[in-house]
Design brief:
alpha/beta
Amino acid sequence: MSTGSDSFTEKTDDALRFLASHPALYHPDIVRTAQQELRRRGLALPEIAEGATSASLLEYAPEPERSNSARGLLLGGGLVAVVLLGAWALQSTDADAADPTLSTERPISLPASVVEQPATDDDMMPNFESLAQERVRKAAATVPAAEWRDSIARNNYQQMVARYWTAEYQTAWLLTRTSQRPTPDPTLLGKINLIQEQWGRLTHAAEYDLKLRPVMQQRLEAMLLGHKRRNAVLGLLTYGFNGGDSLITREIQQGDTAAYAVRYQVLASRLPKQLPLLPLRSSPDVVRSQTVPTRYPNTNPLYLLHNRPLASDPLSDGLPAPVAELSSTEIDSVLVLRPRVATQAYGPRAHDGAVLIFTHAPHP
């Protein structure tokens, strides 16, 4: 399981201590990464919270062969364990509900919420086919005539040009649209996946011998450099959407400008004195929505259904069962808190943010 260890360097000491001391709530890889980050900072590892399971016990270990009599004892013991686990689960739920650090009944000062804006026609990503084909038609001017007469090289090069400009235009459009939108586009991750697939068409084809001539090959190398820079920017944008404090950060701004400069290498033209600069864009601290957001991989936000905390399964990316079972007609409103605000309100357990769900009729 990937833990995104770079993101752990941005977590507070308290958040890391909570992860390290509650191995029963999180995947073992997450617990280990938190422990490693604490050691890197020169901090002592916290004690395992009472009732928590050691991370090492969650790892798979092959079971030894058992005799028939042993299997009988195991079945009998299993029934007892089920009863005990059921009693523990009831006590655990009551304890969580009574935990004053997780109760929303106490006054909590939250920033003003921003109403989520659903996707509109303006959010429909163009395919940029006509613009890409226009670049293909102009490609002959950037390549020596002797190379252009090679029909095999020319046809392969034209395909690469079309793929590069389609992905490049789509990426630039998405970043510009994201910087202009008042709230994050709920379909943003889907658009990023589509764009990455488009870039993949370029990079996968580049792995083959395309029989390109020298100048064509130089242009292709520039296109691949553009992909590398755009891919890094899309990764940062994904992180910001999943829980970062900002959508368009200074790193994204700089990466976009660097990728934009590559265009001029592909076009074999001189860089202008000034390149476009994306405006910085912060994510709202609190977003009000009508739907429960998707739980993203390697995150474990705190869910509260009518003030009652719900534990999500650390070994999967699914929603807690009571939340997953809700129909859209039952939901009155949803508040999504970014990690910075969530930890202020609910402590380290909300280090990946919090989702407050309210239904029309209070849920048991």
